[in-house]
């Protein structure tokens, strides 16, 4: 099998490569060692091994690779070893040695399956160990065994023998040999036949395990940029890095599906979805149903919420969840969730399962979640979630009501960015909901004004200005003058933050002119304070002083210590 030619440069993985290089150095001096490289599909095992192999070759080690292939239950016995022997037999330095060992004939020859795998297994294993020992006296060797998770039973047995009793143990002393074997950690479900072998092997002194973790964001960004000869926009890189979560293959697929024009891949590209859904499709139907439901909930779902929505008997739900966890599609707990939550192991798996839902199914499941959430205690905390599910199931009145509740909750817990988000969602929904279905006591001007205050608190000053301008456009002539004045002084305040001083002064004057100073009111004090500030910024000290004195008196009369303090400062 040809090794893939990599065009893009190799990135990162310094510590891992250093460890492999060290093993290679020691192997060259006669200390035979093996490394089991574990990592999720696409995380970069093959690429890193190719890089290590390049270094090995440069240092004079002969590298031979054997691949295991996914052949279902009809695995070809000894496939990766057959491949390795074939390569060695074709190399003139090794050909004579290979030819002199009957084991090679048995594995490579045309002796049929009887000759391959019959009673002579112990001899075959011993023969293979002896052959390798002799070959390493010709030249230092690195054997790369790729994708052990697909290894056939015979290959697993041979590997067990070679590492535990053959080449690495006892008699292996002095052999110039390294074995690097890769496997997909996420493919190993609980009953996977490779598991017991790995557990056995890592206990051997000459065997170590190297876990290839997801790549850090900075390296992922470099990897994405290195894929193209033309510059990739920062926003595209950021989005891909975020979605790929350290997986090099996912990043490449996402970038490949990103058109230069659109700038982002909207959904999971179909080629990637096919890959992501393989393990999902191997699940029994009930487990698939549970995962589909969980996908609608989001990356993470509480056990109780899932149970109430999926409506399966407890034992069936438990066994479905156990299957999904066993297949490494879900993890229990998750990043920040407690023990009673489940998370998708990778966000893209969730996206792929979600994208695979039928349209009616999607709406039905969102509706089911919205209902369950509405029927639970502590509705304020889950209002944001309910708003999302209601919107996705086209229940716009409930989406509006829930968005407003979510905004209230965010305001109470001092989360202005979230408050802004929910208020904007509510404003979006407003006109789509018939007046009689809207919650009572709200109007768009006040909501827009609230949104602008949230934006200002969240530090989004320009957004705050746009929102107050929108409120100003909405406040009709028939509206009460107090509200109209509030809109104007709020706009003035926001404009001062964006250094638009002249406009600020105009609006604060208008605000002040709209409400009488008598009877004394809070709104008037606020308008006055804003105007004092605008006047000062404009260098109109006379106006500032006059209005400040007047406002101070009213603030004292009304007992408004905050406003009083503000005025005294200015
Ligand atoms: N460190 C890296 N630098 C540059 N490219 C990388 C790096 N790691 C991985 N890639 C690229 O990402 C893609 C996936 O990597 P690779 O094939 O090595 O993954 P894998 O872990 O072997 O996956 P599988 O389990 O499917 O075999 C490849 O195109 C590879 O070239
Ligand atoms: Mg690979």
From TrEMBL:
GO molecular function annotation: adenylate cyclase activity; ATP binding
Record's keyword terms, sorted: ATP-binding, Nucleotide-binding
Pfam families recorded: AAA_16
The Orc1-like AAA ATPase domain, residue ranges: 9-165
Gene Ontology annotations for the cellular component aspect, listed alphabetically: cytoplasm
InterPro entries: AAA_16, P-loop_NTPase, TPR-like_helical_dom_sf
N-terminal signal peptide: none
Protein name, entry field: Helix-turn-helix transcriptional regulator
Organism name: Streptomyces apricus
